[in-house]
Amino acid sequence: FTGKQVQRLYSRFKLLDKRDCGYLTREDLLIIPEVNINPLGERLIDVIMGDYGENNQINFKQFMYLLAKFRQGKIKSSITNYNTRESKLRFLFDMYDRNHDMKIDRTELLDVLKMMVGGNIQEDQIATIADHTIGEL
């Protein structure tokens, strides 16, 4: 990030840090409108806290690492590549793989489908979609 971008991100971080404690909690992140209305918002926060957080909190440095993952282009450091295609795919995969067994089973797929379509589709139709999806793999 450029210095100006870091300043803007820090301002955003401080705005989200309503208690002025130097870190964000899952509750702070869930009040972000784009996260709050996202049917996978809670899953997103779970992955963020699992990958970047400590004690269900993220500080500004961790916040920056998180945002760096979604920047265009490749960011390399002596430690790791932050935003490779693989790291982005791993992040998304982790949103589905709730039990961290490195595979997405029928139950996990059903859970995500239910979150995404809500009450718009009957459960048996969702189950059929999940079964067809798993059958194609």
From TrEMBL:
GO terms for cellular component: cytoplasm; nucleus; plasma membrane. GO terms for molecular function: calcium ion binding. The keyword tRNA processing does not apply. GO terms for biological process: protein transport. Its main location: membrane. Residues 84-119 form the EF-hand domain. InterPro entries: Calcineurin_B_homologous, EF-hand-dom_pair, EF_hand_dom. It is found in: Cell membrane; Cytoplasm; Nucleus. Keywords: Calcium, Cell membrane, Cytoplasm, Lipoprotein, Membrane, Metal-binding, Myristate, Nucleus, Phosphoprotein, Protein transport, Repeat, Transport. Belongs to the calcineurin regulatory subunit family. CHP subfamily. This is EF-hand domain-containing protein. The lineage of its organism: Eukaryota, Metazoa, Spiralia, Gnathifera, Rotifera.
